[in-house]
Design goal:
This protein has helices spanning 27-39, 50-59, 76-84, 100-108, 121-136, 172-183, 191-199, 207-220, and strands spanning 19-23, 43-47, 64-68, 91-95, 113-116, 147-149, 152-155, 160-163, 166-167, 188-189, 230-233, 237-240. Strand 3, helix 3 (76-84) and strand 4 (91-95) form a beta-alpha-beta unit. The protein is built from 8 helices and 12 strands. Helix content is 35%, strand content 18%. The chain is α/β, with parallel strands linked by helices.
């Protein structure tokens, strides 16, 4: 992690851009992160373990939490789960481990972003900006109505989702991703487009999109290994097919066509 602070964009009076809770037991990392966020205009609180973080969270709900995964006593996964029990709050997880399994579990527990150490504090501030901007965005009135198709039904206002009448346990980002695809059935989106439109990021690890697609398929597809709703258009991206009996269903790969079978990406 770099120690020489570059100029952080969009500085402001501390507290004017929102409140951030930083949870990290490494005093050096915590000091740098708090300093950058403070200079960027955020009011920042700090905790060095899980119980202290939950106490600060309960006392006053922050706008966003920067949460280290490897905490003493109670790890970041458990802290995130307990915070989520009290309602949605944007979470960016920090960890020295970059394994996909950890990333999947972090995203599964509701994390909105996942940053691996060592990292650039300047980039972290940009990610905080991006996640908060997305969290505060208000959906257009005409986009907030119920969505349905292919046996799926979503209520964006109540944040409820069903498949063939069965309730789906979706994370916040899984719900947003499925809602976006339902608003644009039959259209192919690349991972960069999905990251920009669903996550609100102009940069980041594209595997985040891949992980969410895989997790979402596991919840909405009858056979996730052979998806018929969320299809891979090889070399392009992903497409939601509401008409699963369309002529190109299961066809071989080619321009604008899908190829399913085996392990899907």
């Amino acid at each position: 992690m770099e120690n020489t602070p570059p100029v952080v964009p969009s500085p402001g009076t501390p507290g004017t851009r929102g409140r951030v809770l930083v949870v990290d037991d490494d005093p050096t990392v915590a000091e740098v992160v708090v300093g950058y966020l403070h200079r960027a205009g955020y009011a920042v609180e700090q905790a060095d373990d899980g119980p202290a973080a939950l106490g600060r969270f309960a006392a006053r709900r922050p706008d966003l939490v920067v949460l280290d995964l490897m905490l003493p006593g109670m790890d970041g996964f458990e802290v995130c789960r307990r915070m989520r029990e009290h309602g949605p709050v944007p979470v960016i997880m920090l960890t020295a481990r970059g394994d996909e399994e950890d990333r999947v579990l972090g995203l599964e527990t509701g994390a909105d972003d996942y940053v691996t150490k060592p990292f650039s504090p300047r980039e972290l501030v940009l990610r905080v900006d991006s996640v908060l901007r997305r969290a505060r965005a208000v959906a257009p009135v005409d986009a907030a109505g119920p969505l349905s198709g292919g046996g799926l039904s979503l209520d964006p206002v109540a944040r409820r989702a069903h498949r063939d009448g069965r309730g789906l346990a979706l994370t916040l980002r899984e719900f947003d991703l499925l809602a976006f695809l339902l608003r644009h059935p039959g259209k192919v989106f690349g991972r960069e487009e999905l990251m920009r439109e669903v996550w609100g990021w102009d940069f980041g690890d594209l595997s985040t999109v891949t992980v969410h697609i895989r997790r979402l398929r596991g919840k909405v597809e009858e056979d996730p290994a052979r998806p018929r709703l969320i299809r891979t258009v090889w070399g392009v991206g992903y497409r939601l097919d509401l008409d699963t009996e369309s002529p190109d269903a299961g066809a071989g790969a080619g321009p604008g066509r899908t190829r399913e079978g085996g392990r899907s990406l």
